[in-house]
Structure formats: C-alpha cells, structure tokens
Amino acid sequence: MMRQAGRYLKEYRDIRQKIPFLDLCKNTDLAAEVSLQPYRIVGVDAVIFFSDILIPVEAMGVSVSLTDKGPEIENPIRSQGDIDKLGVPDPAAETPFVGSILKRLRQELDGAAPLIGFAGAPWTLASYMIEGGGSKSFAEIKGMAFREPEMLHALLDKLASTISAYLLYQIESGAQVVQLFDTWAGELNRQDYEEFALPYTQKIFDSIGGRVPRILYLNGSANLLKSMCNSGADVLSVDWRISMTEARRLTGDRVALQGNLDPCLLLGARERLLTKTAEILQQAGPRGHILNLGHGILPPTPVENACAFVDFAKAYRH
Q: Which of 7, 90, 120, 135 could form a disulfide with 299 if both were Cys (CB 3.0 to 4.6 A apart)?
C-alpha cells in the first residue's frame, strides 16, 4: 500500500509522539521500525523504507520544515540566483542515514520480502520549492514555466541530477525496487508534461538503467498515461480516476500497471471495499499488475480494513 507507514497505525503514532517527523526520517533505528510496522501488522508483501521526498531537497541547501499543514519552504526559489546556490549533493555524505536505514531493513528482512526505495520527481519537487509548500493552483511554478522556461529547466535538470544520484545510492544501500513520485505532474496537460516533466523522469530512469525495476506514479495521470509509457518506467502506478480496463487499453503491453483503489474505500463498508478490489483485479487480469492504492493510505483508515484489503488480495485467484 502506498505510504505504508503512518497515522492509521497506533504503533506509528506512539513513536511520532516522541520525535519530530524529519528527525524520525533520519533516525536509523526508529525509521527502520516504522518501515516494518505495516509488514508485521497489516501483512503487506513488500516494505517501503520510511522517508520523505524532500530529504534530498534539504540536502541541496533548502530550508525545509514539515508542519501539520504539510511541507513549508522557508525561502522559495524564484530566481536564477536562487537556483545557482543549490548544490547537487553527494547522497552518501549528505544523507548517510538513508543508506543506514536501507541496510538495516535488508538485514532485518533477510530476503523475506522485497525492499522498495523512492524519491520525488523533479517537477513535483520543484513545485514545492517554487510555491513554498503545497498549492491548489501551482501559479508560481506554471508562471515560471511559461514566462522563463529556461530558468525552470535549469532547476529541473539540477533536481534530476540530484535524484539520479540519490536513487542510485538507495540501490547501492539495498533497495530492490525504486518508485518515482511525480504527484503534481498531473496538473499539466500532455504537451506541457512532455516539455517540463517527462525529460527529467527519463534522465533519472536512464541513470538507473536495468539495475532494479522502476515504478512511476502520477496523481491524476489518466490523460498522460501514453506519455508516461515513454518514461523508462517498468511499472506505471495509476490512481482511481481511471478504470484498470482503460489503463490497459492506453498502455497496452508496454508496461506493467500498479493501483488503483481509491484509498477512501478503506474508510467505508467492508463489502464495498472487497467488491471494488475484486473488480480491479478482474480488470487487470493475470498479467503485470500490482494491486495497490491509487494514493497514500489515509490517517482515519481502520487497521482492520487495511488488513482485509491485503488478505483479500493475497487470497485472490484469477
């Protein structure tokens, strides 16, 4: 399940009461513990290491804070001078805790389940850096894209270099799969996606090559799936706004698919949850599909519903 660890688990909340979020991301023992909680409690069949997509942004020299309202950037990027000040960090030197967490998890798992690493994609990271946090209109980054595209491309390219090195470091440290989250690229039309987001995803996936399977997620990706097939991803992770039947039609046999249950179904009646899960599995068929949520699991989710979802998936046979 996407965003496996989190506030829906009491065990996670107990740990979070003792430590700020970013500190938790940098604490090998506790980050490994919360990474393993969903595996032990809910029974998922892979483990996502616990971190945040803004960790490498902070390493580039950006002041990041995570509040109850979401990420906040103290000094948003608005000029070429701001971009020039950003570094392309050596992940082993600037984020060594990431390697420590992954190595610990590989040791703990001892081959029992695959370990997934992840990062934010350049467009999404640039959105936070330019907007100063979350946004509904994305007016600042789109304004820069349409007013000063060369400047935005310079930032996106620097981010692509940073994330390429960051994911390669994760792989060297034990990640067996990597997922790239371009959450906010769904705010773009297809032409703008192919100009401002896709080339930098391609650069990152090209740097990884065939070392491990590569997964790409966009929120609101229905109009972009054909373009996403050209990203270099082995798997496209789709949200709940498109049927798996339609996603198959658009992507053909070019990639495997992941998704696409609405996480809000985990808040509702068990019968409806399992009926919809079965529908997704039937539409996906037996070839190249990873059942998953279409976005992160929500804090109010009853743990018993998360378990029911996972148990049903494991027992399902085409």
A: 7
